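Quiz preparation item.
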């Protein structure tokens, strides 16, 4: 009964949010890793509380151990559209985004981002483990499955849909094809340019496009992308935390009875790690990487901020990522950002930075923030 009321309340909240604007922020706290090699220090968690029953608040606190227990030195409260505790399952999270995913089938352009430091659960949220059982599958495979099922159900009403998938990586402000066969940054690979047509359609030149004829096919795509990323790089983990991965689903529908048509795009984006990278000491490639990540993440914040603020000029062109997503950000489009955070004490400062970034993105959507650039 309470659960039901909660669900209704949350739906209502989502509807209100819809009226307020098309940008939402969800916070997800990952569980403490149970792996044996996590050291005792790492396993120490920060003090995190979830004060409200609606699941929208999180209080993050710095504490010190005293003889009588922990003492809170300073607490930092944050409010988001939704906060997912470590116990939340992939299914719980998907339930909250399924309407948004559905809207791509209805002809909207949608972007879902995962923002957070390396190790905070971005890839787990978006892709999930690659050999995942159905319960632990991430948002990408779940979205494809849902769209596939909904498209099938709409056949009875005359709709037929084609579903095309692309998966690109933006590394050092260069677009790479994660589904191609040409290696990633070996130098011999194809150059991919971003083009925006007059019809509002975005294309990337020479990119691999896969027609998704079944929901299962997406797992093979994710595996291929993971393989490409690993051979394109000498240090796989480094690479995945230093590039943005954009999975794009294009959905074109035609109705044979009413002659209507619809075109929607769903973008699911696993962002580069948000940890503040120091430029001191970095040289050459590493310095370039660092600058590219810092720039593109702050540019993303600026773009979302400008859209929510209804600024006449939105600086899409300041980074490859925002330029690629230009037609799926702003206007009628819908945006959701997951801010993924770690519960570990050792990550306290980075977590605070992530929560602050997300708050700026979030508070501007309800028009309470003063005008300030998002860093
Ligand atoms: P990121 O992509 O942000 O660097 P990952 O998604 O790779 O982080 O997560 C780091 C580790 O934590 C992985 O081993 C992942 O499986 C685990 N993990 C993250 N989030 C969860 C979660 N909600 N439930 C279980 N394990 C998780
Ligand atoms: Mg990752």
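Solution:
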């Amino acid at each position: 009964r309470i659960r039901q009321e909660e669900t209704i309340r949350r739906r209502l909240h989502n509807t209100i949010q819809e009226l307020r604007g098309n940008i939402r922020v969800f916070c997800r706290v990952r569980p403490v890793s149970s792996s044996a090699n996590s050291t005792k220090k790492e396993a120490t968690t920060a003090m995190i509380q979830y004060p409200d029953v609606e699941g929208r608040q999180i209080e993050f606190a710095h504490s010190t151990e005293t003889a009588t227990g922990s003492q809170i030195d300073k607490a930092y409260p944050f409010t988001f559209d939704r906060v997912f505790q470590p116990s939340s399952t992939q299914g719980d999270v998907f339930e909250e985004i399924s309407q948004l995913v559905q809207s791509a089938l209805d002809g909207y352009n949608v972007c879902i981002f995962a923002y957070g430091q390396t190790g905070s659960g971005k890839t787990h949220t978006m892709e999930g483990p690659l050999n995942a059982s159905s319960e632990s599958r991430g948002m990408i495979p779940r979205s494809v499955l849902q769209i596939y099922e909904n498209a099938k159900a709409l056949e009875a009403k005359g709709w037929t849909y084609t579903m095309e998938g692309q998966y690109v990586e933006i590394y050092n402000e260069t677009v790479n094809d994660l589904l191609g066969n040409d290696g990633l940054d070996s130098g011999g690979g194809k150059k991919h340019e971003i083009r925006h047509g007059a019809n509002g359609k975005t294309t990337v030149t020479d990119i691999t496009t896969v027609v998704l004829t079944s929901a299962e096919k997406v797992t093979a795509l994710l595996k291929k992308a993971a393989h490409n990323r690993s051979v394109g790089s000498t240090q796989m983990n480094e690479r995945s935390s230093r590039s943005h991965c954009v999975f794009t689903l294009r959905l074109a529908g035609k109705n044979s009875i009413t002659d209507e048509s619809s075109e929607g795009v769903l973008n699911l984006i696993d962002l580069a790690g948000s940890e503040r990278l120091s430029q001191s000491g970095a040289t050459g490639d590493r310095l370039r990487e660092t600058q590219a990540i810092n720039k593109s993440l702050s540019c993303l914040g600026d773009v979302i901020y400008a859209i929510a603020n209804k600024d006449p000029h939105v600086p899409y062109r300041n980074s490859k990522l925002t330029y690629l997503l230009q037609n799926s950000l702003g206007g009628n489009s819908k945006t959701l950002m997951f801010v993924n955070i770690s519960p570990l004490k050792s990550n306290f400062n980075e977590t605070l930075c992530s929560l602050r970034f997300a708050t700026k993105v979030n508070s501007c959507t309800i028009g309470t923030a003063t005008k300030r650039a998002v860093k």
